Amino acid sequence: MNMIAKYVLDSCALLAYVYNEVGSDVVESALEQADEGRTKLYMNKLNLFEVYYDILRSEGFQQAENFYSMVQMSSVNVIDSMSDSVFREAERIKTQYKMSLADSIALGETSVLGATILTSDHHEFDIVEQNEKIKFAWIR
Questions:
Q1: For the whole prediction, is pTM greater than 0.85?
Q2: Other Cβ atoms closer than 10 A to 21
Q3: What percent of the chain has pLDDT over 90?
Q4: pLDDT digits (tens, 9 = 90+) for 55-94
């Protein structure tokens, strides 16, 4: 049986896609593969909130709402609750690496799902990649 690859989108990866930055092609490919059923994409609603907020701040309410609608119609599985296992893993990661709440939740989701995080956030995550069994896919 062929296992479908699972990816968790970090907010910086989705922002790269939204703003057509370097690495947006990698995110676009992942979205297309999810639409075709060849992979599964997940994103915690808190990380989605970060992207929405960035678009709201820079482009206004209507663009942020358009983005949110696009995500809701996409193949991204938005996780809007937190299991105890994600709670504990995110807390452990946040405490150990002293990172933002949203980043620790993205990593907690990745770890618990047995997924790979799709990100460009070397500043926060390089040290984690060196010391944890969490899998990373860098978009740039």
A1: yes
A2: 15
A3: 98
A4: 999 999 999 999 999 999 999 999 999 999 999 999 999 9
* Interatomic CA distance for residues 41 and 46, integer angstroms: 15
Residues with Cβ within 8 Å of 28's Cβ and at least 6 positions away in sequence, in order, are 17
- What is the domain partition of the chain in residue ranges? 5-138
Tell me the β-bridge partners of 137.
118
Structure tokens at 84: 């105890």
Helix pair 101-113, 45-59: axis angle to 10 deg = 140
The fold of the 5-138 domain, in CATH, is: Rossmann fold (3.40.50)
Written as one letter, the residue type at 114 is G
CB 36 within 8 A of CB 54: no
Angle between helices 101-113 and 122-131 (to 10 degrees): 40
